[in-house]
Write a structure and sequence with these properties.
Length: 235
């Protein structure tokens, strides 16, 4: 069962006996929750298992003569798993590969200099003023509706109100609670509960990391070999 920010807030206040205490405002409590979620996701990223919890997909239109496309607004950094192109009205389906390697810039120009009626697209990531975009290569000449499908890691939902869902796996909620408790107690200088709560957080954090690490040992953890080096040699 998903927890709301209000449930976390109430649980923390009860456990720390600060139900009527204005030492930590609700807005601060919600920011602590967001900090805890970000910390948990950073551990997932280190282990490469964020797709188990935050993978999603979206479709995108191809616009004739348009090279640059905005990436999904809820994408976590540029965590793209796959881009699939299905040519409308056909069974022509393939993975749109990313331009990589030492020749990616030359290939960008080569692809755009070659006129093909039904090209197999590739993409190049750009980061302009903090807003990542994707260049579709070669530049499309024909418009297509919802023919590109992005599979990517989405950002966790940001907590802003008590009704906001705390967007973590249910087994991780104990870490969120412990993290928030420590941050609250830091606001109360000299509180004798702080040391024991910090130690408890360390124990729960280790348990969280161990639990996440175990997720990498299932039967579907094969990583595809990066063949870009060989592709470059053949080019």
């Amino acid at each position: 069962m998903a927890w709301t920010a209000l449930q976390v807030r109430n649980k923390v206040r009860r456990d720390l006996d600060i139900d009527e205490d204005e030492l930590v405002l609700d807005e601060q409590m919600y920011e602590f929750i967001n900090d805890a979620v970000r910390d948990m996701v950073s551990e997932m990223l280190k282990l490469g298992i964020e797709d188990k919890y935050y993978e999603t997909r979206t479709s995108m239109n191809i616009v004739a003569a348009q090279e640059s496309y905005s990436l999904p607004a809820d994408m976590y950094v540029t965590k793209i798993y796959r881009v699939i192109h299905k040519r409308p009205g056909t069974r022509d389906i393939y993975e749109v590969k990313r331009l990589r390697g030492t020749k990616e810039y030359l290939e960008y120009y080569w692809e755009n200099d070659t006129v093909v009626s039904n090209p197999q697209y590739r993409y190049k990531l750009m980061n302009t003023a903090g807003a990542p975009t994707m260049l579709l290569v070669p530049t499309p000449q024909v418009a297509e509706t919802a023919s590109l499908t992005f599979w990517y890691a989405r950002k966790p939902v940001v907590v802003t109100t008590g009704a906001s869902i705390v967007d973590v796996p249910e087994e991780m909620i104990s870490y969120i609670l412990s993290f928030v408790k420590v941050e609250c107690l830091k606001k109360d200088v000299g509180n004798p509960l702080l040391q024991a709560t910090v130690e408890d957080l360390g124990r729960i954090r280790k348990l969280m990391v161990d639990t996440l690490t175990d997720q990498t040992h299932d039967s579907d953890n094969m990583i595809e070999m990066d063949t870009s080096f060989y592709d470059d040699m053949e080019a």
